[in-house]
What does this fold into?
Amino acid sequence: MSGLKITLLQQPLVWMDGPANLRHFDRQLELVSGRDVIVLPEMFTTGFAMEAANNSLSQDSVITWMQAKARQTDALIAGSAALQTERGAVNRFLLVEPEGKVHLYDKRHLFRMADEHQHYAAGDKRIIVQWRGWR
It folds into this structure.
């Protein structure tokens, strides 16, 4: 089994401004090549906000953006976003493969000291993703 090359991208996020944050990551991702996995920050579209209902980006638009970036970089793109779902607001971790396949995980253990559990529904599923020979 060969090694797995992982890149972590971090930035000071623009509070509650999804389009501005995606533009920043567009620029950063242009500089990334030869990686297997690229990890974006938690709640990379908004910052660690408790106002998910005010998120200007839908799950579909976040997934479409991540699919384009995964194709562009030929890497698995991962990151979480505050999203509205049929269960209410969730802190959803998305893993997107270059071929477009999407894996979703809703954060189970919410950060109580920030009252995250008051604003987001906890997930109840576990996922295991196989990627380039790794789990």
